[in-house]
């Protein structure tokens, strides 16, 4: 019995040392990966900002959150796996040359915006003073883009004169609060503003030049 307890304690101490080492390792600054070799059969899309990004201060590097995804495409369909163990698939409609076997990539983008908004709003509401407890949220989100940005015939010397990005994302976000939450119009505005500023997907859409026109509604009043 004593030997078993001693072994369990030793294992626990070893486990703590491993966890401490892993946490320390996560903050170690590692050099950027070596540049891809320049060969006639390879194109390397390199943004010069990546050079400065690799030399970011330690304070920025230690807060950096990384994501990883791999994929395999056949014709217009792609199946992807995330480093967190989830599978994602995309395709395009038959009229665009696909088989419509999965959501379009832009639909995934809008779905990411909705999921990110939901998770971020819960976090923001929980940290407001007094707290805003959210029971659930309903989304009705729409968007449009100019097809010419993607469909203009490719040429050797010119890029499309029309941006391919989404031009406008609009719709409503209806938030259902717990009865104990005191929700005023001003607090709903703060919730919406703080959520849109902290959601990585919404932040990226804003930065691209996409017009974000989202109405936030207090669903508990209806």
TrEMBL record:
Transmembrane segments: none
A UniProt-annotated Pfam family: OsmC
Matching Gene3D superfamilies: 3.30.300.20
Positions of the UniProt region annotated as Disordered: 24-54
Designated name of the protein: OsmC-like protein
